[in-house]
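Shape matters. As here.
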Amino acid sequence: MYGKSQLALKYIHYYLTAASGRGHGIHSPFVFNFITDVLNDKRFFYAYDEVERLRDQLLINNAQIEVQDYGAGSSATASRIRNIKDIANWSLKSPKYAQLLFRMVHYYQPHTIVELGTSFGITTAYLATANAVSEVFTFEGAETVAALAKQHFAHLDLHNIYLATGNFDNTVQPALQKMRQVDFAFIDGNHRKEPTLNYFNWLLPYVQPASIFVFDDIHWSAEMKEAWRVIQSHPSVTCSIDLFFIGIVFFTPDIKIKQKFSIRF
């Protein structure tokens, strides 16, 4: 993992070199539409208040739970006994990016959604509320964290979420084999190169032309940056968008020449 000062320098470089977040100079109609209709959609949607109230409660929750962490985040603390508010502060995607995921699902209306890394279910709730007729299959390694996420889904009255608990190596592929396709995937489970590429390769057989994959923390470390480079370069990926804290890939055959964009957000 990069240190804070190193990550800050990388962000400054991204911000200075990325394309305008308003779409100026973007010659791809597909990406221009994404910028104008999704990235810059400033509407306040119905789901935001409820989910953000839940986030606020988590960020002040002093209760302790024991956590089995399978990902790179386990280096954050040597103890398996952690405060809920500390886990929330470390693992939850910020409202800015969680609500972008909501807008993407709301705009593109994917039916089968896969999330690797449920945590307390904040992003899961956004994914599930954006399209009520979708099916969201989410995977979490830590049983105690997953148990709380289930409570949150019940509190929010969400019935289109299917949560699997345990090591991804044992849970993800058997679940994928029961799916015909994956329309949308958010990969936030293990911030290392090899597992990230494994997840990408597991999901690839279920891609259809409108599929969208989102990868979290693509500049989190040198490993993740390299994983992102490999994913961008894959022959199946026709378009990739680097928003620094997340990376998005598209597989649409309408894009004949591979496109790579870095856009301010």
Notes: The longest strand covers residues 135-140. The chain is about 45% helix and 15% strand.
